[in-house]
Amino acid sequence: MSKNIKLMQGNEAVAEGAIIAGCDFFAGYPITPSSEVAEFLSSKLPKIGKVFLQMEDEIAALGAVLGAALGGAKAITATSGPGMSLKQENIGYASMCEIPCVIVNVMRGGPSTGLPTLPSQSDIMQAKWGTHGDHAIIAITPSSVNESLYETIRAFNLAVKYRTPVLLLTDEIIGHMREKVVIPDKSEVEIIDLKLPDVPPEKYNPYNYTSGKVTPLAPMGEGYRYHVTGLIHGETGFPSQKTDVIQNAENWLIDKIYKNIKDIEKFEEFMTGDADILVVAYGSTSRSVRQAISMARAAGIKVGMFRPITIWPFPEEQISNLSKKIKKVLVVEMNMGQIILEVQRAACGSKVYGLHVTNGEPITPDQIFAKIKEVSEN
Amino acid sequence: MIKTKFNYDYYLRKNTLPHIWCPGCGDGIILKALLRAIHKCGYSKDEVVITSGIGCASRLPGYVDFNTIHTTHGRALTFAIGIKMYKPKLKVITISGDGDALAIGGNHFIHAARRNIDMTLIVFNNYTYGMTGGQYSPTQPLDSFATTTPFGSIEPPFDVCNLAQAAGATWVGRSTSYHAVQLEKFMVDALTHTGFSVLDVITNCHISYGRRNKMKSPVEMIKYQKEKAIPARSAENMSPEELTGRFKTGVLFETKDNPEFCSEYHKKLELLKTK
């Protein structure tokens, strides 16, 4: 069977992935460098009978996505930088009310308006902690255009499976570069669809905090009438201030993600078998690291890479295990030091070094190779 | 349209009662009018979606047996647009207070009106942020008092209806929680109108607003509603001086000429299908 291969932009690959995943609804607001996701979907979705909306602001965009998702839509929005800050309120709502949706953040430099047209990876901690209150989140960091397509599909699947917002964190480099993409047929990829509850409406509770299983979200308008509120609620969906209900609800939001970490996690190990130095990198930065590793290997330094693809929940166990045999760990990221904090926590037996560049340019293989040499001599 | 005898119990989620509203609050009167109006329209409980934001009024959806979404502060219309666009057959109603609809949600208010999407917004307009203890709202009358205007308000208030009409709403009306019969009638009008309908309902918060403005009992506030309301037709013959401190009630604007957003979008999808 001949493969369907296309040259595509990263943002286009996200749009393509969304459509393969069965996306019914997009609402967004223009912002660089993510706007092409909206542009591509504005021409594709109406042609297949789906909804595209450009809303009045970023908050409205996610609000509309959540409204559609409660109606049973597979829904997505895309944004960047300041737009991501505005979305935080409704990300909290989606977490609390367990509404599946995909939120793409094509990361650019910040804080504030920052560097609209230049890349960064400085929204990693915001992805986890950006909204108020305790909750867990799933965030994914693809490192190529091809991976952007497949990880968008996976983001939709995880959103449905765990009834949670899933963040897809690309960056300006991945979003705007063009690469080869192998477009799969729908039959070649796993697609998880929303399912109706297996109980009749009168027995349906929209939440379940104790069985360990995620209750299917009944699409509104199909006979399952229930209440959704951002207030802490019990299993019936109605607000509660009972201490046990509150604690169960809080535990559940964390447990449903962390107790399923084996299903959610995804990572790549590259030449770690004999490595004396482990580089941890994700997203576009991992591409420079790969080149730096060849340079280091040619110079006789044994270096490998661990690349989280699911970055939240953080692959703590893998880092911890690797750090038992690799005593030097270097974290390379386009921010002033974010995921390094997680690595330090997980790799407590090892010395952890950081290379953090936020000058609007990608971190080059030369810069990384120089840092590897420094670490190896240390 | 009406198939069965009306019964409040059929529409209420009695296990969620009593409600959180203070004794004498006007919100309960509006809730009851809404249930009667929905019944008159003949909608099934499954086809009605009610979204709300944050505040006293926005607790309404919890008490009524429809598909109900109590969203984030000011954002109820955005959720409503999402579900309406995805499932156009649903009857979507948004409940909002004056602060929720016009301050934090002002942007969504004008854009929902501009799109003329087929939904109904009911503003429970009590001139105050009741739930947070009576701070001044964007509809609070000039020179009146709130916990954050201890020396009298110097901010001109929004006229909800003028704003809605200017922004593009195609059905605009105003009533009060005193005029319970008229309120129900206007709700039926608003719900059955095709396009974005905005019903401004002047209601009483004697606890947070009235108490600071010489109307500390529900009775005084209801008298205020009765005396200050002036039917739009009567207002036509009155001078600006005579209208000072009063508000017009009635169906203030209605047009069927403007395209409705949701059906326009879905018409376009049909066109694309045949291409």
From TrEMBL, chain A:
<dbReference type="GO" id="GO:0016491">
    <property type="term" value="F:oxidoreductase activity"/>
</dbReference>
<dbReference type="InterPro" id="IPR052368">
    <property type="entry name" value="2-oxoacid_oxidoreductase"/>
</dbReference>
<keyword id="KW-0560">Oxidoreductase</keyword>
<feature type="domain" description="Pyruvate flavodoxin/ferredoxin oxidoreductase pyrimidine binding">
    <location>
        <begin position="16"/>
        <end position="242"/>
    </location>
</feature>
<dbReference type="InterPro" id="IPR002880">
    <property type="entry name" value="Pyrv_Fd/Flavodoxin_OxRdtase_N"/>
</dbReference>
<feature type="domain" description="Pyruvate:ferredoxin oxidoreductase core">
    <location>
        <begin position="275"/>
        <end position="367"/>
    </location>
</feature>
<dbReference type="InterPro" id="IPR009014">
    <property type="entry name" value="Transketo_C/PFOR_II"/>
</dbReference>
<dbReference type="Pfam" id="PF17147">
    <property type="entry name" value="PFOR_II"/>
</dbReference>
<dbReference type="InterPro" id="IPR033412">
    <property type="entry name" value="PFOR_II"/>
</dbReference>
<protein>
    <submittedName>
        <fullName>2-oxoacid:acceptor oxidoreductase subunit alpha</fullName>
    </submittedName>
</protein>
<dbReference type="Pfam" id="PF01855">
    <property type="entry name" value="POR_N"/>
</dbReference>
<dbReference type="InterPro" id="IPR029061">
    <property type="entry name" value="THDP-binding"/>
</dbReference>
UniProtKB/TrEMBL annotation, chain B:
<dbReference type="Pfam" id="PF02775">
    <property type="entry name" value="TPP_enzyme_C"/>
</dbReference>
<dbReference type="GO" id="GO:0030976">
    <property type="term" value="F:thiamine pyrophosphate binding"/>
</dbReference>
<dbReference type="InterPro" id="IPR051457">
    <property type="entry name" value="2-oxoacid:Fd_oxidoreductase"/>
</dbReference>
<dbReference type="InterPro" id="IPR011766">
    <property type="entry name" value="TPP_enzyme_TPP-bd"/>
</dbReference>
<dbReference type="InterPro" id="IPR029061">
    <property type="entry name" value="THDP-binding"/>
</dbReference>
<feature type="domain" description="Thiamine pyrophosphate enzyme TPP-binding">
    <location>
        <begin position="54"/>
        <end position="201"/>
    </location>
</feature>
<dbReference type="GO" id="GO:0045333">
    <property type="term" value="P:cellular respiration"/>
</dbReference>
<keyword id="KW-0560">Oxidoreductase</keyword>
<protein>
    <submittedName>
        <fullName>2-oxoacid:ferredoxin oxidoreductase subunit beta</fullName>
    </submittedName>
</protein>
<dbReference type="GO" id="GO:0016625">
    <property type="term" value="F:oxidoreductase activity, acting on the aldehyde or oxo group of donors, iron-sulfur protein as acceptor"/>
</dbReference>
